[in-house]
Specification:
Layout: E1 2-8, E2 14-21, E3 27-31, E4 36-43, E5 49-51, H1 59-63, E6 72-73, E7 79-80, E8 84-87, E9 90-93, E10 102-103, E11 116-122, E12 125-134, E13 145-153, E14 158-167, E15 171-172, E16 176-177, E17 195-198, E18 202-204, E19 217-218, E20 230-231, H2 241-246, E21 250-254, E22 263-269, E23 275-281, E24 285-289, E25 313-317, E26 332-333, E27 339-349
Antiparallel strand pairs: 1-2, 2-3, 3-4, 4-5, 6-16, 7-10, 8-9, 11-12, 12-13, 13-14, 14-27, 15-26, 17-20, 17-22, 18-19, 18-21, 21-24, 22-23, 23-27, 24-25
Bound molecules: beta-D-glucopyranose.
Length: 353
């Protein structure tokens, strides 16, 4: 692992960029500003490496307006309706930053803070450990929350992310990573031809503000059925109210696996390059988002422009708005407990069909 300076925040904090490498030549760059994955080089079927995550060229670009490129998301990933929830009889009011709702931890979420870095060597490969303590009341959330996130580049081309958190007061937590992937290479057109499989029989339908209705709906007969491989583009334009609300896919799938067990929950392949990405997680849900809000206005890495659907995200998570949804898996963390969660994006190649 190596590191170099990566700019300074407006408040004067110096930020670093870390490079993790493995013996197969895979390389990942991560900054401790927002814990963001800045680049990820993965080989195609003929061994050619390409950067498969979207981002911007300069540290200033990450400080500026951008849709969570590569970022760690917290304290609560995804939406909380009207930015309000009750816990132990107390109503908490969060910053509202997405229409009427709270999204991805608030105005200054974990994607916009400087994490304390530590380089480590795990048995699986080089690790960058990032630590952040979110103060009681930060962005409206109760309790001092200490979060440690370890990024490990494994020997078999996986980027593993291990999350740990503890609190001194009951609080709600939902941590994820918001990398935007294009397996053809960042800036290489849209992801509509990528082939996706998601091991989920159900998803959580939403209202027009993308807040779950509370129903766990079968994917059977809907464009949300990815139990068999299908291209992203094959049904994204279907006349379907859920797709209209999301402007495409921007929904949470209810994963079939047992929560807490570390399993492959999704697989994505790009036919031309042969690159494959498997998603493994312990989490119960997966937000599959198809870059519907990208609109060509951001100048990305290497001057690339990112049109609508230039990338997809697979955000492993607990379900959106869980603090207000008694039937969803719980997201409350209490003093004395440790939140532990793992996700891995594992890269390989498949032969031409
Ligand atoms: C959300 C989208 C949002 C995107 C970037 C995703 O996790 O589901 O609705 O636009 O993040 O902000």
């Amino acid at each position: 692992m190596s590191n170099k300076p990566f700019g300074t925040t407006p408040s004067g904090e110096a930020v670093q960029l870390y490079t993790l490498r493995n013996a197969k030549g895979m390389q990942v760059e991560i900054t401790n500003y927002g814990g963001r994955v800045v680049s990820l080089l993965a080989p195609d079927r003929s061994g050619r490496f390409a950067d498969v995550v979207l981002g911007v060229d300069s540290p200033e670009g990450y400080l500026g307006d951008n849709p969570y490129f590569g970022a760690l998301i917290g304290r609560y990933g995804n939406r909380i309706a009207k930015g309000r929830f009750r816990l132990n009889g107390v109503e908490y009011k969060l910053a509202v930053n997405n229409g009427a709702n709270a999204l991805h931890g608030g105005v200054k979420g974990f994607d916009r803070v400087v994490w304390q870095p530590r380089e480590a060597q795990s048995p699986d490969g080089p690790s960058l450990e990032l630590k952040y303590t979110s103060k009681d009341g930060e962005e409206g959330y109760p309790g001092n929350l200490t979060v440690t996130v370890s990024y490990t580049l494994t020997a078999d081309n996986g980027l593993r992310i291990d999350y740990h958190a503890t609190t001194d007061k009951d609080t709600v937590v939902n941590l994820t990573n918001h990398s935007y992937f294009n397996l053809a290479g960042q800036g290489e057109g849209t992801i509509l031809d990528h082939v996706v499989q998601i091991y989920a029989d159900r998803f959580t339908p939403v209202d027009a503000g993308l807040i779950p209705t509370g129903e766990l709906k079968s994917v059977e007969g809907t464009p949300f059925d990815f139990r068999q491989p299908a291209t992203i583009g094959s049904r994204i334009g279907n006349k379907d109210q859920q797709l209209e609300y999301g402007l495409g896919y921007d929904h949470n799938w209810v994963l079939n696996h047992k929560t807490g067990s570390f399993d492959v929950v999704a697989r994505v392949g790009e036919p031309v390059s042969g690159r494959v990405m498997e998603v493994l997680t312990t989490e119960p849900g997966l937000q599959f988002y198809t870059g519907n809000f990208l609109d060509g206005t951001i100048r990305g890495k290497g001057g690339k422009v990112y049109p609508k659907r230039a990338a997809f995200c697979m955000e492993t998570q607990h379900f959106p708005d869980s603090p207000n949804q008694p039937k969803f898996p719980p997201v409350v963390l209490k003093p004395g407990e440790t939140l532990q969660s793992s996700t891995e994006y594992r890269f390989s190649v498949e032969p031409a069909r």
